[in-house]
Amino acid sequence: EHFFSLSFVGTVPAMGMEASGSAIVFLLLLFIHVAHSFYLPGVAPQDFEKGDELKVKVNKLTSIKTQLPYSYYSLPFCQPKKIVDSTENLGEVLRGDRIENAPYSFKMREAQMCNVLCRITLDAKTAKAFKEKIDDEYRVNMILDNLPLVVPIERGDPGSPAVVYQLGYHVGLKGQYEGSKEQKFFMHNHLAFTVRYHRDVQTDSARIVGFEVKPYSIKHEYDGKWSEKTRLTTCDPHTKRLVVSSSTPQEVEPKKEIIFTYDVDFQAMKWASRWDAYLLMNDNQIHWFSIVNSLMIVLFLSGMVAMIMLRTLYRDISRYNELETQEEAQEETGWKLVHGDVFRIPTNSDLLCVYVGTGVQCLGMVFVTMIFAMLGFLSPSNRGGLMTAMLLLWVFMGLFAGYASSRLYKMFKGTEWKKIAFRTAFLFPAVVSSIFFVLNALIWGQKSSGAVPFGTMFALIFLWFGISVPLVFVGAYLGFKKPAVDDPVKTNKIPRQIPEQAWYMNPVFSILIGGILPFGAVFIELFFILTSIWLNQFYYIFGFLFLVFVILIVTCAEITVVLCYFQLCSEDYLWWWRSYLTSGSSALYLFLYATFYFFTKLQITKLVSAMLYFGYMLIASYAFFVLTGTIGFYACLWFTRLIYSSVKID
């Protein structure tokens, strides 16, 4: 479990009286002792005495083949007397989590063998439902004391961990009987659970540190008629007959009888961290390779930027400022020539303001989310925490979106700040919502638990209209009240004609070139993020991710400044939109990579699942475009203001 040590390094200012200083130090030390370690509410492990009842909960059924989650009881598994839903947070509901109570009965540190859960007879409909889920490789997910159920898989590779864990066990498996080519479906109807615990020697209480299962398929047999007290001949603790293999598997066919059984074993282990086994990572080297690869790009770009800065700020500027005669000034070429047009208001300036404001909102959300994640507040133990945090932060960052868009709007001599605030509050969320509604309708059609219920939909709409929109207007009002930013040089009344450009300065070409390096800086980390989202694995290496995010910001800023300088040197002053699109074009490469990932790594075959994948990746790419475009735009704005304020202009 993630817990945090707080330590203070610093000096207490002289108080005039030594006693007051030492009192403060004492209070600080006391505070450090009290706050030495703390757990996040709702995710702390519990202490259990021997014989305490353990509540097992079931979560959704998941498949990496369909990406459509279903609730556990959508299949005719054994049910408790009354199904009780656990309260889920916003993030859990959006992920499709449906946590309910299970019929399993565990007692702390009391092993059980061959417990019969229930007996069902399949009809044509239930047999078909089971077969479909087995064919789509659905997994059953369970939770015990906030730990997910895992299946240990032994690996023989040298240099890699001996055991890796997979989340959830398969509903069943496909196979053939020996000598037959007909494919049959078999059901995992016997579960051998292992609960790992750490015992406190002084109090004799124990904490759960692992929850594992080995599933088996076995055709259970018994003598005589079935009753509550019937003893199985295939699994009987009295005769020490236990299930250790799936040699006589349970077939899934109509009119077949299936008996569900389970064992529970308790194993003591040394306490490390409950999540260590789950978050076993053997690809550290790849992450470091990713960081080094990204840093090389940054160093290369930084070198270019430094060269340009030295050239422009030192040589060009001193040369421009030393020109004495008018004839010499007229003969001069380069970026100084366009000084009368470089701050000319661009076409569609309103839309640019809206996109810059939205980019600031995205940037703020991502930055704060990563800080929280690095501090461990959004660890995997806090299910749905990441999604909830991102949504709430997006909503509250509306304040900065309104402020940024109205400041730029006022710089462009705009007067109707309410109009720009309205557009900023609605453009990006409306595009994302419309894609989301279409995808949600598709999920509804599949009767999946991934479909967002009306109550949650209403909550999302309230967050947008009730909190985000008013905050955007407040931000826009505050931004518009401030005095306008003055241009460092005057703009001519008549626009200057742009000379014919070389082929490599063609807008489309330079925009597409500009997106390659920012994408190159993040694509290795992107592979891990896509794997965690679509292949149902944990992503928790937020330290690496934050480093990559910083590298992305630097790369976007530098590539845009470099290309902007080349553009101004070739006397093309239409840089406003070009700077946004140059770094923003990395989103195009992100979507192309997502397409490549779909065809090479995923096994999705259903049309609906493919539409879900591309729909969500389209939303992600759109958000990435807005984020990277804004970084490039602000870098270029800073650069042009810097160089044009440094030269004397008659």
From TrEMBL:
Q: Secretion signal: which residues? A: 1-37
Q: Where are the transmembrane segments?
A: 288-310, 352-378, 384-404, 425-445, 457-480, 501-534, 540-568, 580-599, 611-639
Domain of life (superkingdom): Eukaryota
What is one Pfam family matched by this protein? Answer: EMP70
Cross-referenced SUPFAM superfamilies:
MFS general substrate transporter
Q: Where in the cell is it found?
A: Endosome membrane; Golgi apparatus membrane
Alphabetical list of InterPro entries matching this protein: EMP70, MFS_trans_sf
The primary location reported for this protein is membrane
Gene Ontology cellular component list? endosome membrane; Golgi membrane
Alphabetically sorted, this entry's keywords are: Endosome, Golgi apparatus, Membrane, Signal, Transmembrane, Transmembrane helix
| Membrane-topology annotation of the record | Multi-pass membrane protein
Q: Which family does it belong to?
A: Belongs to the nonaspanin (TM9SF) (TC 9.A.2) family.
**Record protein name field:** Transmembrane 9 superfamily member
Q: Which organism is it from?
A: Brassica napus (Rape)
